[in-house]
Amino acid sequence: MSYIRWALFTVPAIVFLGLLSGRVSNSGYDNQWFAALVKPTFMPPGWAFPVAWTILYILLGFALAVVIHARGARLRGPAVALFLVQMIGNYVWSPLFFRMHQVTEAFWLILFILAVSVLTTWAFARVRTVAALLMLPYLAWLAFAAALNYEVDRLNPDASRVAAPGLRANIE
């Protein structure tokens, strides 16, 4: 029963914090600065991102609950610590990219997130195999997101200076 209680906390918390990060940073296709950038040809449609991230955050919440529930597991503490480090990086990425327009820095951050997530997955596997399996779609998406971030950076070398189309005022 303890696993269910943990999952009832971890899943909504991770989903809520992800939603909050996206809202605070004005992420997505409605962001005028982002809309002004050149996108790679393999950029998914706008609806795919909230769907993918919601599913991934749910899986991450379940994976974390599995590990937290594994009382007495030798690597439980370090695994949770690694998970928290990569999640903090995950929640910082959207404001860095969408709010602060730091595309290159966001690329380096996503590589850091990916590296720590690989270590997290390894640690989760040492605690409970199912937790590591729940991390695999996230690792795949992070690799894809890193490729997208790299291409946006390559296609928009002056992205931090791109001016979002603004409102026009007719003052006479």
Spell out the blueprint of helices and strands:
Layout: H1 2-25, H2 32-36, H3 48-69, H4 76-99, H5 103-127, H6 129-155
Task: Report on this structure.
With 172 residues, this protein is an all-alpha fold. It has a single domain (2-158), classed as TspO/MBR protein (Ferritin), CATH 1.20.1260.100. It has helices at residues 2-25, 32-36, 48-69, 76-99, 103-127, 129-155. Helix 3 (48-69) packs antiparallel against helix 6 (129-155), helix 4 (76-99) runs antiparallel to helix 5 (103-127) and helix 5 (103-127) packs antiparallel against helix 6. The longest helix has 27 residues, at 129-155. The chain is elongated and about 55 Å long. The mean pLDDT is 93.
CATH architecture: Up-down Bundle
Order of SSEs, N→C? HHHHHH
Number of strands: 0
The profile of the biggest β sheet is: none
| Head-to-tail CA distance between termini | 69 Å
- State the CATH topology: Ferritin
pLDDT averaged over residues: 93
User: By CATH's scheme, which homologous superfamily applies?
Assistant: TspO/MBR protein
Q: Structural class given helices, strands, pairing?
A: mainly alpha
Count the DSSP helices. 6
Helix content: over 70%
User: Strand content of the residues, in percent?
Assistant: under 5%
Query: Any idea how many domains?
Result: 1
Uncertain runs: none
Q: Rg to the nearest angstrom?
A: 18 Å
The CATH first-level class comes to Mainly Alpha
What would you call the shape? elongated
